[in-house]
Amino acid sequence: MRRPTNAAIAALSAAIALVLPISALAAKPARSSIAQIDADARARGNRHALAVAIGERLFTHVLPVQLLEIRASGLGNRAYVGLRFSGEKFHGSVSKADLDRELVDVVETAFAVSQQIREVDCWIVVPIPVAPGTIVSGDKAMPTERDVLTLSVRRGESAAHLAQRLKGGEGIVVDPDWVAHALAKGASHA
Question: Does residue 162 fall inside a structural domain?
Fold first, then answer.
């Protein structure tokens, strides 16, 4: 078989260059920000793009309580969002006031992303120790985490009302032992 000459390779390269649009040759993938990477890694549900958009807004700064998952699901023009947080391994010391403020902020941020969002649910989970060999997936799975705080917020509830509900515990399921042991005592941290 004959080896291609430099002239043949140059002619082939020129022919390919004529066929490909210039933009395809010049296009370089945009570098993803850390916020985009984190948002995509944590996005779930049938409204993946909405979950990513919420995550990109939330991950513009470090959240005191670690956000594990952003779930956005919906049908038609209605969407529902779930935000799952870790109840341990905080990014610094977190008081009850800090936690309440963060929950209000993340809920308001999520609602601001899309008018289609009808409800935002937040839950904070902690791991449950399981013995080696325990089935943790499938039909016979044992739970591996438990909720220590759950909260549902419908569109239209003001941030001030939500803050008051969090402070008073109205419509919120919370484990008081977790609050007593996991959250910092004393004044909130700015």
Answer: yes
Q: Which domain holds residue 37?
A: 33-182
- Whether 46 maps to a domain, the answer reads yes
Reported as a single tens digit per residue, the pLDDT across 124-163 is 999 998 889 888 888 888 899 999 999 999 999 999 999 9
133 in helix, strand or coil?
A: coil
Determine whether 73 is exposed, middle or buried from the number of CB atoms within 10 Å of its CB (0-12, 13-18, 19+): middle
The two structure tokens encoding residue 8? 């043949």
> Among 121, 134, 112, 114, which Cα is nearest to 162's?
121
Residues 6+ apart with CB under 8 A from 46: 72, 73, 74
**pLDDT tens-place string over residues 78-118:** 999 999 999 998 988 999 999 999 999 999 999 999 999 99
pTM equals 0.79
154 assigned to some structural domain: yes
State the burial class of residue 124 (Cβ atoms within 10 Å of its Cβ: 0-12, 13-18, 19+): buried
Instruction: Quote the number of domains for the chain.
Output: 1
What phi-psi label fits residue 160: left (phi over 0), alpha (psi between -120 and 50 degrees) or beta?
A: alpha
Query: Do residues 82 and 124 lie in contact, with contact meaning Cβ atoms separated by under 8 Å?
Result: no
Whether residue 2 is contained in a domain is answered as no
Structure tokens at 42: 């944590």
